[in-house]
Structures are given as structure tokens and as C-alpha cells.
Amino acid sequence: MPSPDAPDAQLLDETMAAYERLLQLLTNVRSPELLEANVTMAQMKLLMLVAAGGELAMSEIGA
User: Fold this and answer.
1) Helix (H) or strand (E) run with residue 12 in it
2) pTM of the model
3) Beta carbons within 10 angstroms of residue 25's beta carbon
4) CB-based contacts of 39, cutoff 8 Å, min separation 6
5) pLDDT-derived band of residue 30, with 50, 70 and 90 as boundaries?
6) Could you write out the three-class secondary structure of 20-39?
7) How confident is the model at residue 63 (pLDDT cuts 50, 70, 90)?
8) DSSP label at 55?
């Protein structure tokens, strides 16, 4: 964790390094099935929302 007194350039470098690491981790866990799914972007977003949120009522999905 960067110190609150870190210079802006150092903080930016540390943030970018953490972001790159996050992208690497996400790339490693993607599944080929997800990329081959025959769904629209809107449908994919909804599937990801339901996967992240568990059981959702239709009113929660539409909100």
C-alpha cells in the first residue's frame, strides 16, 4: 500500500502496476466458453450481473 505522502508519480506508477497485475489475473481465469457464447453484449452484462450478485429479483435487475 503506498504511503499517503508518496509523490504523485510514484503513486501513479504503483497504481498502474497494480492495474496491470489485476488484468493478468483476470486474463488467467477467463473461460473459453465465455468467449464462444452466442449472446449479445447486453445479455452478457446481465449474465455477469447475476453471477456476481447471486439471486436477484426482476425489479433489482431492471433498476
Assistant:
1) helix 8-29
2) 0.40
3) 9
4) 47
5) low
6) HHHHHHHHHHCCHHHHHCCC
7) low
8) S
User: Would you give the end-to-end CA distance of the chain in angstroms?
Assistant: 35
What are the boundaries of each domain within the chain? 1-30, 38-63
* pLDDT, tens digit (0-9, with 9 covering 90-100), for 50-60: 887 778 788 87
Q: Which amino acid is at 57?
A: A
- Which has more pLDDT, 12 or 58? 12
Which grid cell is 52? 456476481
Beta-carbon contacts of 11 under 8 Å, excluding residues fewer than 6 positions away, are 2
d(CA 3, CA 25): 25
